[in-house]
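Students often ask why inverse folding is considered easier than folding. One informal answer: many sequences map to the same fold, so there is more than one right answer. In these notes we will look at a single instance of the problem. The structure comes first.
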């Protein structure tokens, strides 16, 4: 079973329609949808917006369901230097906490600089601000998504940045882009990736670009287009799930 996590219902509407009829349970006080999508058994739940919501629901579902993998999806803002347009797709090579650390007069210090890891595996591996996507899933999923992309739609692999405070100015977006190497930002992905690292479950994330990170102007955003693009990418990943080469 593959666990699908998105923040809000706007980001899952076509997928929920495609799942129907399906079994609907309650987990963590919210609806948990169980069914088949693109030939794969899935469970889908909305985390709610933000790191705390995402970490809580991911931990609960990882402990309860023991999924084969977790696929996080939704919308993202693209940074000024990304070259991306609304409706393009970002497949996370890794998730990065953009504001987990300390802000000093000499600049930002991440958790590694502060000496505090966020996750330690049984084998001793430690994670600080950065949580990589599963490399095998990442490469295969990129090929699947790119093969079904619309004409002119860009599908890129890069770090995605998770923040508690969204960037509402071009200057802040440029600073985060420079510091993290990410092409866009969201509010949940790193928290889900952190829980996957803790539980040892493969993590993958894809997001549609809803806006450019610039001087905040909601009239220039298209959340529906971005959400639809991300969900189409999810279906492409699921449709090709059994075609991937399993690790030796």
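Output (designed amino acids):
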């Amino acid at each position: 079973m593959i666990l699908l996590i998105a923040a809000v219902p706007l980001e899952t509407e076509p997928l929920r329609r495609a799942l129907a009829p399906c079994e609907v349970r309650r987990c963590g006080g919210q609806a948990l949808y169980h069914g088949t999508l693109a030939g794969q058994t899935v469970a889908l739940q909305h985390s709610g917006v933000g790191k705390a919501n995402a970490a809580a629901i991911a931990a609960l579902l990882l402990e309860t369901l023991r999924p084969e993998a977790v696929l996080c999806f939704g919308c993202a803002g693209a940074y000024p230097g990304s070259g991306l347009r609304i409706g393009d797709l970002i497949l996370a090579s890794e998730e990065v906490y953009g504001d987990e650390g300390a802000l000093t007069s000499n600049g930002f210090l991440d958790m590694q600089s502060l000496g505090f890891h966020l996750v330690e595996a049984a084998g001793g591996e430690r994670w600080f601000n950065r949580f990589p996507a599963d490399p095998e899933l990442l490469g295969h999923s990129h090929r699947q998504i790119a093969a079904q992309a619309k004409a002119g739609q860009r599908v890129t692999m890069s770090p995605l940045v998770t923040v508690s405070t969204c960037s509402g100015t071009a200057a802040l977006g440029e600073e985060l882009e420079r510091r993290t190497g990410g092409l866009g930002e969201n509010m949940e992905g790193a928290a889900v990736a952190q829980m996957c690292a803790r539980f040892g479950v493969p993590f993958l994330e894809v997001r549609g670009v809803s806006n450019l990170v610039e001087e905040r102007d909601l009239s220039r955003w298209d959340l529906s287009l971005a959400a639809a693009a991300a969900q189409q990418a999810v279906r492409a990943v699921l449709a090709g799930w059994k075609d991937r080469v399993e690790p030796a």
